[in-house]
Each structure stands twice: as structure tokens, then as C-alpha cells.
Design a protein that fits this description.
This is DUF1186 domain-containing protein. The chain is mainly alpha-helical. It contains 12 helices and no strands. The chain folds into 2 domains: 1-139, no CATH class; 141-237, no CATH class.
Length: 238
């Protein structure tokens, strides 16, 4: 049986005239699981082929996370996503930012609530990879909510809430444990009252942009996941 890594690399770096979207996606995501020290030049060359294009092999930019010196590439990927790339072709850029640690964090946070990036899109799974990015960078929903509250003081938070709710829905579907932020933590962050007479929570914020029905749906789902956490914890301790 042939080793997997050279097969994946050959598909991505083999100068093919035509590429199948799903095979290219799988090859790029597959390489992320390997050390790619020997492919530094090839990765840079493939990423450079994406510059200035509207559509390109979507997940090639994610390989920026395997570069030993990604800084200069990150600037160019931000320009690519901000000025050229179709929003149906930016999931790999979003993921790539999140795989570059602190160097990528600034870019990831910058695009998350930017309408031009349409991070909440489900067309090619951008929202899925944005959620994965939160996990990669250790960004909590409390962090995001605090940012949205700051946004609401300066501009309409409607789009930021759309992204926030879409990310939360991905968390509802995530079966992997997340000890850094439980659903009880999220509930406290979002739905606690300022005092016994004043809410000043996400319900009020969502209501200000006509998203009351959506926020109560999120509240109900969060309560269900809290109960599920308690049941699982009690079961594991029994």
C-alpha cells in the first residue's frame, strides 16, 4: 500500500489542468494532518495561483497553516478574500487563518462579522469551517458576544447576530466535548439579567433588530443542551 501523503501531494501539486472540487478539497484537508516541511515551495506556489481569481481550488489556501513563515501569505490571502474571491470559494481562506495561531487570529476576527465575507454561508460550508476556526483559536462564544455588544454601540448588529446564531447552531450539533465553555456558561453569558428589573441581555439586543423569534429558539436549544450536559455528567459519575 502506498503512503497517503505523497498521493495527496501529487494530486494537489501535480500541475493538473483540471481538478475535481471534492477530490481537491479532500486532498488539501488531508494534507493538514501531516507534516509538510518538504512541501513549503509547492504550497506557496499553489496558493499564489489563487491570487486575483474569483474561483480557485477552494481549500488550497488552508495549507497556509502548514507554512513555516505564513505572515506575508496571510496578507495576500486577506486581499484575495476581501477583493476577489467569490463568497462561495472562501472557506479555505477562513480555515487557513485559524490554523496560523496568533498570526492568523487578527485576520480571522477581522472577517468573522464582515458582510463581504458572508461567513454564515452554507453553500460550500464556510460556516462549518468558521466554527472549526473558533475551536482552533480557542475563541469562546463569550468573546464573540462581547464583540457584538461593542459593535451594537456603533452600527447595526443584525449581521453579526446572524453569524453568531449560525455558529451556535454548529455548536449544538457538535458532539465533541468542549470543557473550555459549557452550555451552562453560554446560557449565563447570553441570558442572565443585569438585575431583577433589567434584562440587558441578548434577548434585548436581538429584539432591537427584529430577531426575537430566533433568539428564543436559540434560548430553548441552549436549555436543552444544558440538560443534556447534566445527564451526561451524572451518567459518567455514576
Amino acid at each position: 500500500m502506498k503512503p497517503v501523503k505523497p498521493i495527496l501531494a501529487d494530486y494537489l501539486f501535480g500541475n493538473r489542468e483540471e481538478t475535481d472540487y471534492y477530490i481537491s478539497r479532500s486532498a488539501a484537508l488531508g494534507l493538514l494532518n501531516f507534516d509538510c516541511t518538504e512541501y513549503q515551495k509547492e504550497i506557496e506556489a499553489e496558493i499564489e495561483k489563487c491570487y486575483g481569481k474569483n474561483v480557485f481550488p477552494e481549500f488550497v489556501p488552508a495549507l497556509v497553516g502548514k507554512l513555516e513563515a505564513p505572515h506575508a501569505i496571510l496578507d495576500k490571502l486577506f486581499e484575495l478574500g476581501n477583493q476577489f474571491a467569490s463568497t462561495d470559494c472562501n472557506a479555505g481562506i477562513v480555515l487557513g487563518f485559524s490554523l496560523c495561531g496568533e498570526q492568523g487570529r487578527t485576520y480571522f476576527r477581522k472577517i468573522l462579522f464582515d458582510r463581504n465575507w458572508e461567513v454564515d454561508s452554507t453553500a460550500t460550508g464556510t460556516i462549518h469551517f468558521a466554527y472549526q476556526g473558533l475551536k482552533n483559536l480557542g475563541i469562546t462564544f463569550k468573546d464573540l458576544y462581547l464583540e457584538i455588544k461593542m459593535i451594537s454601540g456603533e452600527e447595526n448588529p443584525e449581521y453579526a447576530l446572524d453569524v453568531f446564531f449560525a455558529l451556535l447552531e454548529r455548536k449544538f450539533d457538535d458532539v465533541a466535548p468542549a470543557p473550555e465553555e459549557s452550555f451552562a456558561d453560554i446560557y449565563t453569558t447570553l441570558f442572565s439579567w443585569k438585575n431583577e428589573n433589567e434584562g440587558s441581555n441578548i434577548i434585548d439586543l436581538a429584539g432591537s433588530v427584529s430577531k426575537t423569534e430566533k433568539v428564543y429558539e436559540i434560548k430553548k436549544l441552549t436549555e436543552m443542551k444544558m440538560n443534556e450536559e447534566v445527564i451526561l455528567r451524572n451518567y459518567s459519575e455514576s
